[in-house]
Amino acid sequence: MTEVTIQAADGGAFMAYVAKPATLPAPAVVVIQEIFGVNAVMRGIADDLARQGYLAVCPDLFWRIEPGVDITDKTQEEWNKAFALLQKFDVDKGVGDLKSTADWCRQQTECNARVGTVGYCLGGKMAFLMASRSDVDANVSYYGVGLVDLVGEVPNIKKPLLMHVAELDKFVAPEARDTVLEAVAANPKVTAHVYEGMDHAFARKGGDHFDAAASELANGRTADFFREHLS
Questions:
Q1: Would you state the torsion angle of the CA atoms of residues 75, 215, 86, 114, taken in this order, to the nearest 10 degrees?
Q2: Is 11 helix (H, G, I), strand (E, B) or coil?
Q3: What is the DSSP string of 16-45?
Q4: What is the DSSP letter of 70?
Q5: Is 78 helix (H, G, I), strand (E, B) or coil?
Q6: CA-CA distances (angstroms) from residue 88 to 31, 35, 62, 122, 179?
Q7: 107: closest CA among 185, 4, 215, 208?
Q8: 125-152 pLDDT, tens per residue?
Q9: Where in the sequence numbering do the catalytic residues fall?
Q10: What is the pLDDT of residue 191?
Q11: I want to staple 161 with a disulfide (CB 3.0 to 4.6 A). Which of 20, 131, 197, 206 is the partner?
């Protein structure tokens, strides 16, 4: 486990946490952060992916606002900071940074040139956008937010996208959820699973809405998806 510096396409550079598998070269998975930065939860996900055989890279998407954000969901002060960062976040530049991260992965001798993404919350939105705006091989979105405003992007999804949708997501109105599900159903490259009774971040270990059974089911589907499309 280490940190690397990646050059942004529009100038500047940002940090990324890297976890390496035992066997290299390997497919790479870009882990896309929640609104709490590259924190222990995100690093843990990267470590888990490395144990599954992937070169896992988690870039700092908030670097233009405040480099090195590493907070939790445990205090109101941290939530306030996270939402303030989200308000300042430039989604389009974030997509650019994720593309730069994918390019960096492909340039490494430790990568076999296959690259996927997996994102959570804000990262789930960004994984959805990587599916529509990039050429990475496979993308996974966990309870993405703000997707109802992006349904026009669905026809542009040409590579496989797996979506994990919380039925009772407190950040996604039921009408918005159903609009997104209807839109992606028209694209055969998209597979969406709805987790009944689940709230936002049901797969975040230690979170208020963590559900072990739903998390295990979603993570198993993600593992199968990556094996199919990144091997």
A1: 140
A2: coil
A3: EEEE--SSSSEEEEEEE--TTBS-HHHHHH
A4: B
A5: helix
A6: 21, 11, 9, 13, 26
A7: 4
A8: 999 999 999 999 999 999 999 999 999 9
A9: 169, 200
A10: 98
A11: 131
Which pLDDT tens digit goes with each residue over 157-206?
999 999 999 999 999 999 999 999 999 999 999 999 999 999 999 999 99
Torsion of Cα atoms, 18 then 22 then 23 then 27, to 10°: -30
Which tokens go with 231?
């091997």
1 pLDDT above the threshold of 90 = no
Q: What is the pLDDT of residues 158-169, one digit of tens each?
A: 999 999 999 999
Nearest to 144 by CA among 185, 192, 189: 192
Domains of the chain: 2-230 (3.40.50.1820)
Tokens (6 digits) for 5: 């510096």
For residue 191, give the DSSP letter.
E
CA distance linking residue 190 with residue 78, whole number of Å: 34
**Nearest CA among 29, 62, 66, 74 for reference residue 204:** 74
Two tokens, residue 179: 């609009």
Q: How far apart are the first and last CA of the chain?
A: 22
Bridge partners of 163, per DSSP, are: 141, 192
